[in-house]
Amino acid sequence: MGKKDQFDKPLAQNKRASHDYFIEDTYEAGMVLTGTEIKSLRTGRANLNDAFATIRNGEIFLHNMHISPFEQGNRNNPSDPTRARKLLLHKVQIHKLLGLSKQEGYTLVPLKVYIRNGYAKVLMGIGKGKKQYDKRESAAKRDVQRDLQRILREKQKVSFPT
């Protein structure tokens, strides 16, 4: 049996991150969850839209990530679904991220949440914000690529009659 791909089934994705930022580097971090949050994550009831990360006192926190309360939960259910969650990284990685995020225009963006070896992980990216003209340029490249793929498919249909 081959090794499973670690990103084969993301539980939550931030699709706007690639639209709004140039992602330059990624880091995998563990998440500190309380109560039945892991059960909600496993059922796919998480949302990374508008989520961001900050570094305070040598610790990194994930803000505005929404994890819906688990319906069959008990009193250990957290009351605030968008509370700040602590992320687990090595101290060297946190210091490196702190230095990079202090540079002008850079921010820490969560990209994906997934389960790896039974633990909830978040893929963090260090991104530089795109300007409006960069977004238009990316959209134009995507449209050209889509048109090329369509033309190639049509040529393959024509060259191989059935």
TrEMBL record:
Species, as recorded: Candidatus Cohnella colombiensis
Name this polypeptide is given: SsrA-binding protein
UniProt main location, coarse: cytoplasm
Location in the cell: Cytoplasm
Keyword Magnesium found: no
Entry-linked Pfam families: SmpB (PF01668)
UniProt function note: Required for rescue of stalled ribosomes mediated by trans-translation. Binds to transfer-messenger RNA (tmRNA), required for stable association of tmRNA with ribosomes. tmRNA and SmpB together mimic tRNA shape, replacing the anticodon stem-loop with SmpB. tmRNA is encoded by the ssrA gene; the 2 termini fold to resemble tRNA(Ala) and it encodes a 'tag peptide', a short internal open reading frame. During trans-translation Ala-aminoacylated tmRNA acts like a tRNA, entering the A-site of stalled ribosomes, displacing the stalled mRNA.
GO biological process, one term: trans-translation
Keywords: Cytoplasm, RNA-binding
InterPro entries per UniProt: SmpB, SsrA-bd_prot, SsrA-bd_prot_CS
Superkingdom assignment: Bacteria
TM helices/strands, residue ranges: none
Cellular component GO terms, alphabetical: cytosol
NCBIfam families referenced in this protein's UniProt entry, alphabetically: PRK05422.1, smpB
Family, as annotated: Belongs to the SmpB family.
GO molecular function: RNA binding
